[in-house]
Amino acid sequence: MLHLALSMVDLTTLEGKDSEGKVEQLCRKALQPSPGRSDIPAVAAVCVYPPFVRTAKSILKGSSVKVASVATSFPSGLAPLHQRVEETRYAVGEGADEIDMVISRGAFLRGEYQLVADEIHAVKEACGEAHLKVILETGELGTLENVRKASDLAIYAGADFIKTSTGKIQPAATLEVTYVMLQAIQDHYLKTGVKIGMKPAGGIANTKVALHYLLLLQETLGTSWMTPDLFRFGASKLVNDLLMQIVTQEQGAYQSGDYFSKD
Question: CA 188 to CA 179: how far, in whole Å?
């Protein structure tokens, strides 16, 4: 289960001080979370700002690790729609396999649901063959009813994944919110036979919490969703804790965090 959780992580760097060097280092860790150990799986994806997609793609080319990019004026989503669409096209043109977009929370909370759906649909079209993860930013939605409504809306508008949070707003991912989103995915699957992915993101920093999410996933959607193709963790700090737990199971004692790279 620890190896599975590791293979579901999206390693992310989304800071104003990001550089090609930092992105390259992150990609190396994504490919080999524990250098020298071929039994440790690569993570699912590396997520970066659009200007760094080409760098990530060149390093990860030929591997199983996807390149994801936050487009659509992340994290606010407040730029004009044509700019968000163009940013999406740019990221895909640079080689992004996945786009993580944020919905217009202000419009959603004003009840402008069709507007939000139309924006998601426009970005989905701009993605082409790339998968679209739609970020609800659940910490700003206020109620679980709104979380469910936004989940249904995003799925209806073309999301391949629905995602809790940008990681910039608190509260971010919670088990309660994730359960509501998983129920929306389940209901959609029962109606259509189409499987939508799920990505809790923000605040999942240790193995115990991650395993709670996997248990919730298995009990709600079943084992067929227990794959990086349908479930991801937006939790870069989780990687080292998972590695520590794997070593602990093998050796019977904890190693210091200093034995694992920080990025």
Answer: 14
Strand partners, 233: 9
Catalytic residue, from 29, 57, 66, 199: name it. Answer: 199
Write the DSSP string, 169-230: SSS---HHHHHHHHHHHHHHHHHH----EEE-BSS--SHHHHHHHHHHHHHHH-GGG-STTT
Low-confidence ranges of the chain (pLDDT < 70): 252-263
Task: Name the active-site residue from 10, 97, 100, 160.
Answer: 100
Residue 163 designated active-site: yes
State the Cα–Cα distance between residues 259 and 129, nearest whole angstrom: 39
**Residue 121 and residue 59: Cα distance in Å, rounded?**
31
Q: Is 100 among the residues known to form the active site?
A: yes
Confidence (pLDDT) at 254: 60
Please pick, among 133, 160, 163, 241, the residue that the annotation labels catalytic: 163
- Sequence-distant (≥ 6) Cβ neighbours of residue 183 within 8 angstroms: 148, 220
The whole-number pLDDT of residue 149 equals 98
| Residues 43-80: b if buried by 16+ CB within 10 A, e if exposed | bbbbbbbbebbbbbbebbeeeebbbbbbbbbbbebeee
- Quote the pLDDT of residue 259: 55
* CB 128, CB 92: distance < 8 Å: yes
Per the annotation, the verdict on 199 as an active-site residue is yes
The reported pTM is 0.93
